[in-house]
Amino acid sequence: MTLGTVVRMWRGQTLPENADAYHRHVTETVFPALTRIAGHEGAFVLRRETEGRVEFLVVTLWQSMDAVRSFAGADAERAVIEPAARAVLVELDDFVRHYRVVHEQRLGHAV
After folding, report:
1. Residue of 6, 19, 20, 108 with fewest CB within 10 Å of its CB?
2. For residue 30, how far is the Cα from the chain centroid?
3. Could you tell me the residue ranges of all domains in the chain?
């Protein structure tokens, strides 16, 4: 990640019994497809258990908003959610948030 990188964040929840299916869909289908889009720089999946559900925060990294639009289309603030994901999610945001990296600090070791 570099200064100026665009961070795209989206949130959804599923039931515990569907959490692994959602995780597999994102990491085995969505993320590999993103690697073929010019300007995509990486992605993270964050997970937490909460009140009988599993919440995911999906974070993707982009070189620019133009790169984001090449993935999301003209309405870049609208979430892109495939039918396979919708099938296992019980709550989801129809929107995303974009942030620009203005400062970065790393400890220099792999996570």
Report:
1. 108
2. 9
3. 6-100
Beta bridge partners of 109: none
CA 42 vs CA 5, 18, 83, 84, 91: distances in Å: 10, 24, 23, 22, 25
Q: Record the pTM.
A: 0.90
Q: Which residue has the tokens 């309405």?
A: 75
Residue 55: CB atoms within 10 A of its CB come to 16
Q: For residues 57 and 77, what is the distance between their CA atoms, to the nearest angstrom?
A: 16
CATH number of 6-100: 3.30.70.100
Q: What is the mean pLDDT of the chain?
A: 93
Question: What is the separation, in whole angstroms, between the first and last Cα of the chain?
Answer: 14
Task: Give pLDDT, residue 109.
Answer: 54
